[in-house]
Amino acid sequence: MSWIVRESGFDPERIAHHGNKFMIGNGVLGYRGTLEEFGKSELTATIVAGLYDKVGDKWREPVNAPNGLATAVFWDGAPLSVLKAVDPADAGARGKAGEGDARGDASPELVAHEQALDLRRAVHRRRSVFRTADGAEVAITSERFCSAVRPELIVSRIAVESSREGEFTIVTGIDGDVWDINGPHLERIESGTDAAGEVLSLTAWTQELGIPVTVAEAAEVRGGGEHQLLREDLSVRRRIQMRCRAGEPVEFVKYVAVWTGQDGAPARDVRTASAQSAREARQLGYDRLLQEHADRWERKWETSDMTVEGDEEAQLALRYSMYQLHIIAPDRSERVSIPARGLSGQVYKGAVFWDTEMFMLPFFLHTAPEVARNLMMYRVHTLDGAKRKAAEYGYDGAFYAWESQETGDDACTLFNVNDVFTGRPMRTYFRDKQVHISADVAYGIWQYYAFTGDESLLLDGGAEVAWECAKFFYSYGYFNPRKQRYEILDVTGPDEYHERVNNNAFTNRMVKECLRVALDAMEILRSRNPERYEALLAESAVSPEQIRDMHDRLYVPQPDAKDGLIEQFDRYYTLEDVSLPDLKGRMLHPHEYLGGGNGPATTTQILKQADVVLMLHLFKGDYAPSVKQANWAYYEPRTEHGSSLSACIYALVAADTGSPDWGYPYFMRTATIDLTGESKQYVGDLYIGGTHPAANGGAWMAAIQGFAGLRYDGNQAELRPALPSAWQAIEFPVCLRGGSYRIRVSRGEVVIKASGENSTAMRFSVRDQELAVAPGQEVRVPYEAAGSLDGQLGSARPSGVKH
Amino acid sequence: MSWIVRESGFDPERIAHHGNKFMIGNGVLGYRGTLEEFGKSELTATIVAGLYDKVGDKWREPVNAPNGLATAVFWDGAPLSVLKAVDPADAGARGKAGEGDARGDASPELVAHEQALDLRRAVHRRRSVFRTADGAEVAITSERFCSAVRPELIVSRIAVESSREGEFTIVTGIDGDVWDINGPHLERIESGTDAAGEVLSLTAWTQELGIPVTVAEAAEVRGGGEHQLLREDLSVRRRIQMRCRAGEPVEFVKYVAVWTGQDGAPARDVRTASAQSAREARQLGYDRLLQEHADRWERKWETSDMTVEGDEEAQLALRYSMYQLHIIAPDRSERVSIPARGLSGQVYKGAVFWDTEMFMLPFFLHTAPEVARNLMMYRVHTLDGAKRKAAEYGYDGAFYAWESQETGDDACTLFNVNDVFTGRPMRTYFRDKQVHISADVAYGIWQYYAFTGDESLLLDGGAEVAWECAKFFYSYGYFNPRKQRYEILDVTGPDEYHERVNNNAFTNRMVKECLRVALDAMEILRSRNPERYEALLAESAVSPEQIRDMHDRLYVPQPDAKDGLIEQFDRYYTLEDVSLPDLKGRMLHPHEYLGGGNGPATTTQILKQADVVLMLHLFKGDYAPSVKQANWAYYEPRTEHGSSLSACIYALVAADTGSPDWGYPYFMRTATIDLTGESKQYVGDLYIGGTHPAANGGAWMAAIQGFAGLRYDGNQAELRPALPSAWQAIEFPVCLRGGSYRIRVSRGEVVIKASGENSTAMRFSVRDQELAVAPGQEVRVPYEAAGSLDGQLGSARPSGVKH
After folding, report:
1. What is the rounded distance in angstroms from the CA atom of residue A469 to the CA atom of residue A475?
2. How confident is the model at residue B226 (pLDDT cuts 50, 70, 90)?
3. Burial class for B539, CB neighbours closer than 10 Å (0-12, 13-18, 19+)
4. Of B433-442, B669-678, B712-721, B778-787, the least confident
5. Cβ contact, residue pair A480, B481, below 8 Å
6. Could you tell me which of A623, A610, A614 has the C-alpha nearest to residue A497?
7. Do A427 and B546 touch (CB under 8 A)?
8. Residues of chain A neighbouring B602 (CB-CB closer than 8 A)
9. Cβ <8 Å between A481 and B478
10. CB contact under 8 A, A482 and B542
11. Residue B510 bridge partners (DSSP)
């Protein structure tokens, strides 16, 4: 039951939302949860990880490959389409749906409709029942998956069944007329079939780099029928006419292979490979492909699925969150990472943000360290882009892209939001001032090393990345001669509503960590690869001693001795202390951007998202509970949660301070974001919809690192359970330093079970009780259940958070 | 002829402009050039230097004292008012004009009208001729002046003459219902007469500080008549009915004294003094008062008036510019300085800006050093305010107010302009980031010392001011560890369209000068007053050695080795290089502010006003002519001249580089700004009209320091003449180190005449010919006339400058 996400009925207003919600993917391909009869107007998309294109002076964004699943079904010439049932006037404009006449009232009526995701097997299902003009009930069911085994492959099976005998037509093939934000990205479309006429293919080239993209389709029709090839400028399709008998379904299967020349392969090879792939898939057949796919997913869940007892809604939301992360995880390539909107479309330029290191990495570190390594190796491979960016601004070292694509050059522009009042682009300081990104990267690299104990990332370039980031900060930082300290000036912290601030607590703390990581990573490099170490120093204008000096004398805003508050940045407290409802009451336009040059929040203490509180989460060991409580209570009412990265952090710190019930609504808001679709869709006039992998990762973090209270610093694992009232227990697998554990946290007891295949024992501490868990051992540790601490966040209320 | 400024005819649209243009004043009082029958709607104002008030949470601004010249004249019951002739519908609304009925068509018709200023004697004249319903021609003439001898006194003589015998009524007295921007500033109005009933007086108190203000009026009527006292809530007036004979003028004179309790005097004393003053004035009589006033003005002109041969228009404009400076010069007090809009009203909060040091001080240094000393002593007296401001922002030393009033606390708010699109206040960075103000103050102090050789200013607090400013910059500055230099970050330079920039060339150069001045001034203090010197060091966290280190290693952007250009600030060249017309074409609202958070200029290279070029003027000795030419040619087309401080600087540097004809239109634009009224009247929705003393000073600078080419560094005087084509010669007096000289620069010859009263000889250099001019000596120096150099500014054209 809690493996299925389902929606009944059809609402055209939810087409875009369902496209995100019912996505499938395999880390290489992402296919939006649209229906077979949908086209570009319904935001159908097949996104290829790491494939970008730029048209004219518009921004670079992912390429939407031709749609190999495009299928229209007609009953007696009338389209069986959910869209037809909606608004016949629109149907004509949608055009691509097929060849049938728009029959107005004569169109088949939609009598039942359901869309569902089987999370366990990562299969999308659809069932629609139409009543035709002649009184027949015709059901279309379909099932599709992006093969977890064959990354180029999408397989779809469609069945048509009627209550009466009749004739229907299927028009299916490859549609090259795709949805684009800043496209069209594909040009010179060529289509054709193989020699046998069995495999359709459509090839096109990206505009900027001329990369060939081929989609090939092999089809299998059970029940025969008359075939006809339809070639148009932008598509190649088959038209199949069949008769079916009452109650006897007719099935057809599409094996769609998407190949590109991203690795430099010429178009000819790409074409051949895709046709070959489609053909092979057809030979293997639907059932075998589904089985190998489901088996692979079973293994993914073995190392990641958690069970929550007592909270079905949270259970499903958590599974769904993990599902979203799994379908976009780059488990085969260290050349791509995870974009902020996953593979759900072209929003946010398909770019990789700090979201990956801060909000997604923990999930993979604990459940799939090899993916975590890929994510961080992506940063190694994009180091040159980061160095180019630093040099562009006159700095040393590596200034990572705020919006990173395949080369690491920054896809972020200086103007990211349009002013709703003047329509003019607004200068924002994401690209040039959100310098914490370089520290976030170094942090992620060290996290991987600490979790896994695997030095290879450091030796394969990770140490160099950290060193270049440290060099960047040395050149970015300034020394205050009067105060005899280094400072980090003119930055934008996580709270993007306050741009160009000085000594942002989060940023300074992260920079300090980056400097430490660089020094420690370089020491490891020195001991393992002294030549490389010496080479790096030889080309560096800065010495480790200088980095050490900056580390030691870097100013990091500290908690006030009296009230424990940490000022978000210099002079933050002098800003107007307005309430969030009052601020929102000042808005003059519903999509008005609160930040930027003149945004209403900029002169107030209202923050976009967790900033100081994020620091308290990341460096939780450094701060007293009272400090965390005080800052949570101060900053939460002032937080707009205008980013999907915000709520989970408040959940985490609430749990950390023994107030899980305070944190629960923030957790649920995070965990359900892509289920409800209730997230910000516009900033200014910019559409920002899509999936939210950072929130998906944040939901996992809140559950495991927050409520279960798991902490691991590479040395000892710690559990500080703080379960929300509704939760009886949570049980989950985790991988620590290569060892596998299964942990169950219930009220008053923790059970830790180590895999028999582990090589060593692991030290655990459960609410300050220390123990070691040997390979194969199961340990039960009673603890005094929390809950009594709840309410310590004082007068703060979880304001403005929907659940 | 070229002593009179005159306007004929009456245009209601020009009431505000004429109020500025025809102002009179004496440095203590400023009286706008309005007509006797005008009231608050016509922006009548009597501004008292240094008297400020704040109402509620609106900004502080000067107090407009009750109007002692309010006078209405009626012929046969019908008002003789220019306003009546305009629009009878309006007249009723204006209300205060008098008691007569608005008679519609029966109102007297205005047949002739003229308003004039006699610059030589600083007397305002007015003549209006009305034709009455019964066919009489009635002329009203008036003459008024603010006594240059008695600072509290305004004297006005009004004559009425009719072509036919008839009866007229004068209603005249003191009107307390005054124009205010953020008022009302005066409360608790009390009015009365002296025991003899001869002196009217009206007393009121400022709201914030409760300072009493009394206006007393003694009147003298030649021709007798029936008097009646009218006391209303906000005014006290006399009603005088008289008969006059055809062709026989009837005259009355008003002696108005304005006293305040600014010095702490109680209301009783203020009242007594003002009545006494009015009475004494009446005893002395109009002619004697005018004579002593005119005599005093004759002496002002002796030390300042220049003659320009061959250019009547420039001659008048220059005299007018000097007139404007003289009427607002604080020649009696070192507690006030000159506000940016002089004493012309409440605009810009009556605040003193850097305008004084940079654009007005040179005039006074050369012509009235005692006024220059007062201006700089004002900064000494407001040091505490500057220290409070520095402390407010967490800095050491003195951060002078961007908008300084009587205490030196900053009257500038963080929100200075309203966004025309949203109506919201816009955060601007004048107050907190225009740090060059402290360097400007130190620069002015040193200029006074260098010009006069008078150490007293330094010993009386000037050295301390410079030292505190240097301390401020030491705490504001940062050391760049990688580049091993100090930098000045996050500032707004003169070009206010680019806020929060790093290493603004002008600012950094000024800071360097400030540090030098502080070190040199402190050395003088050490030698003259070692105790004070030691005391200052004892309370300072910074040593002279540290200031020296910052001075020596402070980064000042230098001319590019190839093209000689100096970048205005870090990364200025990366901004969009749009043309000024193109930028203006992007404006969506005529009053749209080009700067601020999202202003159209902020992301482009368009600058508000001379910035790099101002630096090249101030430090002209440090830069090669080719550098000046290159930067003039680069920056001028990119300058919007959105400030009245801009054009004169381009005139000066054009003259300096041997291109006076390029500079001439900029000079004329500056010199005529208050004559034509063609200046920016709105920024956003903020009214900024008034007089422009900085431009008045800039016009003088362009003529004397530019075209005549006079430079004096405290050691040797230099002349580098570069006369515009139209000019045959310019002749002017100048005071250098206490010696008086008369200099005549004609084409090919310079004549220098030293006063016989000078105590020593002065070294001059004329186009590199060195000579000494002994007391009483007249020296004629031929030189090779320039003009051939003209056109060296290359492809630049004096774009966008009206003449």
Report:
1. 10
2. confident
3. exposed
4. B778-787
5. no
6. A610
7. no
8. 427, 597
9. yes
10. yes
11. none
Distances (CA, A) of B388 to A490, B382, B384, B403, B511: 25, 10, 6, 14, 20
- CB-nearest to A598 from B426, B487, B570 is B426
Active site residue A496: yes
Give me the half-sphere count of Cα atoms (radius 13 Å) on the Cβ side of residue A634: 21
Q: Which pLDDT does position B784 carry in this prediction?
A: 81
Of A630, A501, A477, the closest CA to residue A554 belongs to: A477
Flag whether pLDDT at B680 surpasses 80: no
Distance from the B479 Cα atom to the nearest Cα atom in chain A, whole angstroms: 5
Cβ contacts (< 8 Å) between A420 and chain B: which residues?
none
Cα–Cα distance measured from residue A259 to residue A203, given in angstroms and rounded to the nearest whole number: 9
Annotated catalytic residue within A496, A513, A592, A636: A496
Give every CB contact of residue A604 below 8 A, 6+ residues apart in sequence: A575, A576, A577, A578, A583
pTM value?
A: 0.92
Q: Tell me whether residues A424 and B598 touch, CB distance under 8 A.
A: yes
Cβ atoms of residues B214 and B201 within 8 Å: yes
Q: What's the token pair of residue B243? A: 């008969």
The Cα–Cα gap between A65 and A202 comes to 10
Res B99 pLDDT > 70: no
Any idea of the CA torsion for B428, B431, B432, B433, to the nearest 10 degrees?
70
The pair of structure tokens assigned to A770 is: 């220390």
Q: Which chain B residues have any C-beta within 8 angstroms of a chain A C-beta?
A: 393-394, 396, 414-415, 419, 421-422, 424, 426-427, 474-475, 477-482, 486-487, 489-490, 500, 502, 541-542, 546, 550, 570-571, 586, 588, 596-600, 602-603
ipTM, two decimals, is 0.90
pLDDT category of residue A183 using cuts at 50, 70 and 90: confident
Q: CA-CA distance, A177 to A234, in Å (whole number)?
A: 6
The DSSP code for B360 is I
Does residue A160 contact residue A45 with C-beta atoms inside 8 Å? no
Angle, CA A292 vertex, CA A290 and CA A293 arms, to 5° = 60
Of the candidates B714, B750, B720, B748, the residue with the CA atom closest to the CA atom of residue B732: B750
Cβ contact B127:B4 at 8 Å: no
- How distant is the Cα of B777 from the closest Cα of chain A, in angstroms? 55
Nearest-angstrom CA–CA distance, B610 and B612:
6
Kindly list the catalytic residues of B. 496
Name the amino acid, one letter, at A352: V
A478/B487 touch (CB, cutoff 8 Å), yes or no: yes
* DSSP string computed for A392-453: HTT-SS----SSB-SS--B---SEEEE-TTT--EEE--HHHH-THHHHHHHHHHHHHHHHH-
**How confident is the prediction for chain A on average, in pLDDT?**
93
B517 touches B458 (CB < 8 A): no
- Under the banding of pLDDT at 50, 70 and 90, the label for residue A798 is very low
Single-letter amino acid, residue B323: Y
Residue from A24, A29, A33, A68 nearest A51 by CA: A29
Q: Which of A415, A417, A419, A422 to mutate to test the interface with B (most CBs of B within 10 A)?
A: A422
Tokens encoding B293: 């006033």
Q: CB–CB of A419 and B588 under 8 A?
A: no
Give the Cα separation of B603 and A424 in Å (integer).
12
B58 class by beta-carbon count within 10 Å (0-12 exposed, 13-18 middle, 19+ buried): exposed
For A289-348, strand residue ranges (E) read 307-309
A502 neighbourhood in chain B, CB within 8 Å: 490
Strand duo B717-719 + B762-766: pairing: parallel
**Closest residue in A to B478 (Cα–Cα):** A480
